[in-house]
Structures are given as C-alpha cells and as structure tokens.
Structure prediction request, 104 residues.
Amino acid sequence: MRPGLAKVGALGHFWAMMSCARPLRPAALLLLTVLAAGCTRPPLPDSAAAAAEGPYPELVPAGRILVGSGETPRIDETSESDLAARAALLRRRAEALRAREFDT
Prediction:
C-alpha cells in the first residue's frame, strides 16, 4: 500500500486499486476514442455526392442489353489456339526458372 493511503474499509481499497490503474488510463482513453470513432458515419466520396445530384440514369429494355453493342467479340476462332500457345510458352518459362540456380 502506498504511504499516505490509509485503508479505511472498502473505500480505501478502491483508491488503492485506482492508483495502480493509472498506467492503464491512456490505453482506456485510446480504446474509448477508437470505439467512439467507429460509431460515426463515414463521409461520402465526392463522386457519390455528385452522382446523387445528377440526373437519373436512362432505363433501357433488357433485350437491348442482352443483344450487345454490335462490336466484334473479343473471343474469336483463333483465341483458343492463341491461348494454348501462350500457356505452353509460360509453362516452358516456368520450367526454365525452376531449373535455374539462384544466388542467395
């Protein structure tokens, strides 16, 4: 017990415990601050605020979306062979790297 703290029943014991808890006060304050900050609503980004103020988007029929834009597809008849050739090239490169000895 610290000098000057006379143990007077439960109240004296309480004050003795509180004097030991002083190093924990900054940690408790930090925890309380973090918890309080977690309860606030985060601000919206500028793009969300601008989108909320802008005009409502145009509604289009689902058929127009499903048909596509009329552009040529990105995958064509040669895509499969091109992809297989690229995969074989990458496998050869990986095998060459595995066979190589690296200085550490």
About this structure: The chain has a mean pLDDT of 77. The CA atoms of residues 95 and 101 lie 12 Å apart.
